[in-house]
Amino acid sequence: MDYENIYIEEENHIAIVTINRPKKLNALNKRTIAELHTAFRELDEDRETKVIIVTGSGEKAFVAGADISEFADFSVEQGWQLAAEGQKLLFDFVENLSTPVIAAVNGFALGGGLELALSCHFRIASDNAKMGLPEVSLGVIPGYGGTQRLPQLIGKGRAMEVIMTAGMLDAKKALEYGLVNHVVKQEELLPLCLKIASRISNNSSVAIKYAINAVNAGFKYDVNGYAAEIDAFGSCFGTDDFKEGTTAFLEKRKADFPGS
User: Fold this and answer.
1) CA 102/CA 189 separation, integer angstroms
2) Running along the chain, 260 residues long, what does each successive block of 10 average in pLDDT?
3) CATH 2.40.50.140 holds for 6-201
4) Whole-model pTM?
5) Of the listed 85, 135, 176, 229, which one is catalytic?
6) Does the active-site annotation cover 35?
7) Which of 147, 143, 149 lies closest to 164, judged by CA?
8) Helix 146-154 crosses helix 156-165 at what angle (to 10 degrees)?
């Protein structure tokens, strides 16, 4: 796919995916969702890519929501399909990606933008970031996983307030609530993300994949998270990364993980 609304930079096993629709404050439309799906899929399949950072272009917005002009006249069936396809293509897809995804929230993350950040494995924000789910002010609800992932992160009561008031959390409050892991100045955002990504990239990508699956299992109503952890733990013993990691430890040297 030729990208129109995103661009990708890669260096030292880290890929930065930037959503680039500045005139629309990087709002998500169907084309952008499709491009992001393709980018995440191809990067996940590339064994050289150890970590993905996703951010928005400019200094105003990560993603300021969905492109409302695309669905303002949708029917019930079309609305259902919009949410179902979007969740499958992007939001659920990112959450379950084997490659770690860090959201670098560099401004407004509203509606679908916050839902994209929520689907990432964790979030780091600039001090000018503002986050919220304003959908009820438009007569609709979050449809890309916001009603599920936000309560998991900040608790049911706080999530209910955010959703029902259609209000915004500033970066300080988002940090207090546990919605983001760190808050830094705008110019320090990508450097911090890259520093953390570099630390992640030094570890076993295979073990990280199993860890992501095990953690996610604990948030699924029909899966026993502890059983999933036991299965994942056992599976690690059959990997080349485990052999290399334990051998390197015993030999008192740095591990050179083959990624298999």
Assistant:
1) 11
2) 93 97 94 97 97 96 90 93 96 98 98 98 98 97 97 98 98 98 98 98 97 95 95 97 97 96
3) no
4) 0.96
5) 135
6) no
7) 147
8) 130
